[in-house]
Amino acid sequence: MLPLDKVKGLISKHSELEKDLSSGEIDKKAFAEKSKEYSDLNEIIKEAIEYNQFEKNKFELENIINDKHSDKEMRDLAELELSELKQKFQLNEKKIKIFLLPKDEADTKNAIIEIRAGTGGLEASLFAGDLFKMYEKVSHKKKWQLEIISISKSDAGGLKEVIASIKGQNIYSSLKYESGVHRVQRVPDTETQGRVHTSAATVAVLPEAEEVDVKIEDKDLRIDVFRSSGPGGQSVNTTDSAVRITHLPSGIVVSQQDEKSQIRNKEKGLKILRSRIYELERQKRDAERSKDRKSKIGTGDRSERIRTYNFPQGRVTDHRINLTLHKLEEFMEGEIFDEMIENLSLQAQMEELNKISSWTIKKFSNSEVINLN
After folding, report:
1. I need a surface site. Which of 136, 154, 291, 306 has the fewest CB within 10 A?
2. Number of other residues whose CB lies within 10 A of the CB of residue 17
3. 236, 228 Cβ separation under 8 angstroms
4. How far is it, in rounded angstroms, from Cα 52 to Cα 213?
């Protein structure tokens, strides 16, 4: 069971923040910080209050049940309420434990999404284009800001590669489970005999790193300039405006040629480079923390087949959680994207709970570690 004093601490903190925010006696910076903390606590305060009142409510119902002078109908009703109360108690406990899990520091960041056509030739590039349109529609519905950083189109009108920045609230937490291989099964427009073809596209979602997250030294960079060519850029330049940036310590290489300005291409290239370095360091740190453990959700492994889009059967299947939705058209329109993400997020949280054998977690809004045994 959760320590009751920790649950009471959540309730007390919520009340304290509510009082501070309504006092009008705090500056703008403190108000913003406390508002964020108060908003976070609002997610769990109802469950915390019910959890805190469980023993009292249980005691009252047991008294009715054990009172031989009570009306039988009243005792039956109390037994039913007690059963429901115990079920609610277990559910509340699970929700509070999930809430208290250490948060991924990158969850609140914006994201950079990279989509590339995989196996399947022109059909793969068309599918890559369809995936990008899906993320555009999701962004529009959620009022996220999507900005294309670089794009390379195929001869068939699809995409060889596209890199985009998505800004909004908690973007990375919403999109991080999209990393991996997305497979499509459908009849291409060029198929004359109606045969179903299988092709794929890879998606990588990176938390967008700020300069404060990743310090890049000039001495660690090799920057080459060259002339834009081919269908990759928005236009073929006649000056050496394209930029290739190599981060010597990691070997990461980023090329950028979409802009006519060399300075603008360098800015965009550094933005991508910073996020790739940040993600590389996060993966190293996570690997050190869990050398003998592999999670099937959110590994970010681009070689991992995560989802299949079957157009003839109108279904989309996520292989990590064995979830199939027979609403492929709605999914591609961004209509039921949240349903998939919520299931992935819940499964990831439950796996995280199972990994923590001693229930050592971080106390809310404090670096103090508490033990939930």
Report:
1. 291
2. 21
3. yes
4. 39
Here the tokens at position 84 are: 């429901």
In the block, residue with structure tokens 């996520």: 318
The pTM for the full model equals: 0.68
- The tens place of each residue's pLDDT in the chain, 373 residues long, gives 777 888 999 999 999 999 999 988 888 888 888 998 898 899 899 999 999 999 999 999 999 999 988 888 999 999 999 999 999 999 898 888 878 877 777 888 999 999 999 988 899 999 999 999 999 999 999 999 999 999 999 988 899 999 999 999 889 999 999 999 999 999 987 777 788 999 999 999 999 987 767 888 889 999 998 887 654 444 444 567 889 999 999 999 999 888 888 888 998 899 899 999 988 888 887 676 555 444 445 444 455 789 999 999 999 999 999 999 999 999 999 999 999 998 898 888 878 777 654 444 444 444 343 343 3
Question: How many Cβ atoms are within 10 Å of 191's Cβ, its own excluded?
Answer: 12
DSSP assignment of 104-168 equals PTTTTS-EEEEEEE-SSHHHHHHHHHHHHHHHHHHHHHTT-EEEEEEEEE-TTSSEEEEEEEEES
> Residue 23: which residues within 8 A CB-CB, separation 6 or more?
none
- Rounded distance, CA 220 to CA 247, Å? 6
In terms of DSSP H, where are the helices of the chain? 4-23, 28-42, 45-52, 54-66, 72-100, 121-141, 171-175, 262-289, 328-332, 337-355
- On the 0-12 / 13-18 / 19+ scale of CB atoms within 10 A, 32 is exposed
